[in-house]
Amino acid sequence: MTSLSRHLSISLAASLICFFLIQTVLVGMEMRRLTEDRVVSRLQDDMEGILAALSVASGEAVTVEWEHIPDIFMRPFSGHYFQIQQGKDPIRSRSLWDSDLPVQGVGINRAAEGPENQQLLILSRSFVVHGQTLLLSVAEDTSELEATSRYFQERMILLSLVALLLLLVIQMWVIRRGLKPLAGLRRELQQLERGETEKLEYPVPTEISPLVEEVNRLLMVLQQRLLRSRNAMGNLSHALKTPLTLMFQILERRQDDKECTQLLEQARHIEEHINRELSRARTAGQSAGGGWLKPEQDVRDLVSTLEAVHRQRITVELQIVEITTVSADREDMMELVGNLLDNACKWAQGRVILKVYQRSGLYIIIEDDGPGMKPEEQLLVLGRGVRMDEAKQGHGLGLSIVREIVDAYGGRLELGKSNALGGLRVSAYFPLPGTD
Predict the structure, then answer these.
(1) How does pLDDT run across 165-187, given as a tens digit for each residue?
(2) Domain coordinates of the chain in residue numbers?
(3) I need a surface site. Which of 35, 86, 182, 420 has the fewest CB within 10 A?
(4) Assigned CATH class of 290-435
(5) Residues in contact with 317: Cβ distance below 8 Å, sequence separation at least 6, in sequence order
């Protein structure tokens, strides 16, 4: 899954890197152009001074009045040179010593290997002096300027890298600060999942506000639908209870009639089906806003009630680790524990153990000292697609409701033999985020 923060950081970092690279290249090119323009301007001034120092006698070749030539052209390999090409023998500045300028033609030329391997910028132009044509070339060593330019570019690259790192740090801080409302919204969603709140109220930016409003609206719709469903199931249960009770009374009084006995058996099947479907409809599952706020107190009250129902014939040993809040619907959990305990009390000879604890999820384990179940009966009960009322009598509807609830929460239901009591051991596991 792509991280929004990482995506923004990479995109902005790439943009900054491209910007600084382009800036460095463009500034280097501009600095090189300005340096070259400045050198050419000096060469033009030198060329005018040299032209002024030329003299031509009538019918003779051009000569140089050396006393009017600047001293810098007189020192050997000074970095400033000129050369006059007229005929076969050129006139060279004394700074050239015995070397020739690598002239390539009229215009501006660069020479990588001048005297003493100097990097020269050469300006060459053709002139007609007193009817005589000559080619004047003036050169200057740009090695020091090139070194200065490289030093400037290196410093600029270093400063750009520092600025880039600083901007990246500032960018990360800005992104984290900008995405901070999402972290708060995530925490509130976790609270919503644990049942600690019923809607999202964390202040978020305007761009995210429509999403939060839609989530709250969806939560309200789901809660209303669940409430209507449960109310409808409750009304249906009350509406069917009275007619079924009357049918049972009439049919039980006429159990001597074979047909009435068959009708009574079918009526009981109808009652079991109705109870199963009502239980399935009441199961909330991992619905937003659901929470079992006082699991320990509720379980203790349920144990006391069942012990009273069974007239203290059964002793329920409760082993429960302190659990504050479970992210599950209270009615679902009470239905599950109640069915498992009631089933265990019916089959137990006198002792039942109930364990409730959390370890990367919620565990509910119930063991009894009854006859237990055979392995093939356990497989039948746990088999997918098998109706629970087709299993062993007495384990049918209760385990059917339990499995419906466990499946609704993506949990796991296991049956086995109790090592402590020798009877049936039922283990229900729920991977609930609120039990970490």
Answers:
(1) 888 888 888 888 877 777 777 77
(2) 4-146, 206-282, 290-435
(3) 420
(4) alpha beta
(5) 351, 352, 353, 354
